[in-house]
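thread: overnight batch results

M.L. [08:02]
morning all. the overnight job finished for the chain we discussed friday. pasting input first so we're all looking at the same thing
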Amino acid sequence: MPSATGSFAKAGPTITVRIHGVFPELGQNFEVLIDTGYTGFLSMPITKAFPLGLLLFGTTSLVLADGSTSNRLTAYGMVELGSESQNGVIVLETGSDELLVGIEFLSAFKKRLIVCPTSGVVELIDAPPPSSTP
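M.L. [08:03]
and the structure it wrote out:
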């Protein structure tokens, strides 16, 4: 059974998550783009992060699609996907208004992504445990 159902927008597959920092009551729901080319957990605009009470975590250096590197502030926060939640490092962006989740997000929640663009359906389903066959 899928743990989350989303939609296929013009930009790609999207789902809704809830994000908050140390105070859960400050949490907000966001539609996020699932970007399988992004290896991180979550990336969001710094202006949307401030009201959530995220804890500043430090900085990180990102390698961008064109091969260049860029430094970003990071924060630590909680992301809820349905009834499941995971803590993670959130990259704070100054030049974007998009929220992205990446491969680390799928791994943390132990999910697989299924996309059917013709019907507009996106599902995150539980990933089976690794096999122990030799």
